[in-house]
Amino acid sequence: MTEPVVNNEPQTAAEAANVTEDWQKKHDELKEKMLYAAADFENYKKRSLKEKEELLKFSQAGVLKEVLVVADNLERTLAALPGDDTDKGFLSLKQGVELTLKQITSFLEKNQVTKIQAKGQKFDPRFHEVMFQEENKTVADETVLEELQTGYLHHDRVLRPTLVKIAKNPA
Questions:
Q1: How far apart are CA 101 and CA 76, in angstroms?
Q2: How far is the C-alpha of 20 from the C-alpha of 7, rounded, in Å?
Q3: What digits encode the pLDDT tens for the residues 86-99?
Q4: Taking 60 as the threshold, does the pLDDT of residue 5 lie above it?
Q5: Three-class SS of the chain
Q6: Is 60 exceeded by the pLDDT of residue 6?
Q7: What dihedral do alpha carbons 105, 111, 112, 115 form, nearest 10°?
Q8: Cβ–Cβ contacts within 10 Å for residue 144, how many?
Q9: 157 with 112: CB under 8 angstroms?
Q10: For residue 168, what are the β-bridge partners?
């Protein structure tokens, strides 16, 4: 048995116009969906690229924190050394520690690590961590009196907060 041939061709101009209009609507809907999909894909690409850049930018944070510990120890070493000793070996040791600290500081600067300035500033919990409070009438309340440990930023993000002592005005 053979199937009867069905003629899907429009019989009148009005039917042809309706068919054309239906196809135009379907075309416009699909075109709009395709444009939305293309825009979503472009946004996805931009977001992925930004996330990748952020990951690369801050992936060194753990290593940089460890280098900060070494720099702190070298600074403590220099602070503990007597300044009036003239022994040649001692002076050579002191110079070696100073040069090593200078190299570490240069390394940190190359990696966009900067010190947080705290002394004399108003306490800011985003950058400072309070260790002590001291009653003080000579400066404004919550002014940083002393830096106990230097804090650092890495690309404007806190790598390590500054440990501080702040003023507390008596009530």
A1: 11
A2: 17
A3: 888 888 999 999 99
A4: no
A5: CCCCCCCCCCCCHHHHHHHHHHHHHHHHHHHHHHHHHHHHHHHHHHHHHHHHHHHHHHCCHHHHHHHHHHHHHHHHHHHHCCCCCCCHHHHHHHHHHHHHHHHHHHHHHHCCEEEECCCCCECCCCCEEEEEEEECCCCCCCEEEEEEECEEEECCEEEECEEEEEEECCC
A6: no
A7: -30
A8: 22
A9: no
A10: 135
Cα dihedral sign, 153-156-157-162: positive
What residues pair up with 129 in beta bridges, in sequence order? 163
Prediction pTM value: 0.68
**Would you give the distance in Å from CA 118 to the centre of its chain?**
20
Measure the CA dihedral 109/163/99/73, to 10°.
-130
Structure tokens at 31: 């075109």
CA angle 161/167/169 to nearest 5° reads 145
pLDDT in tens, 17-48: 888 888 999 999 999 999 999 999 999 999 99
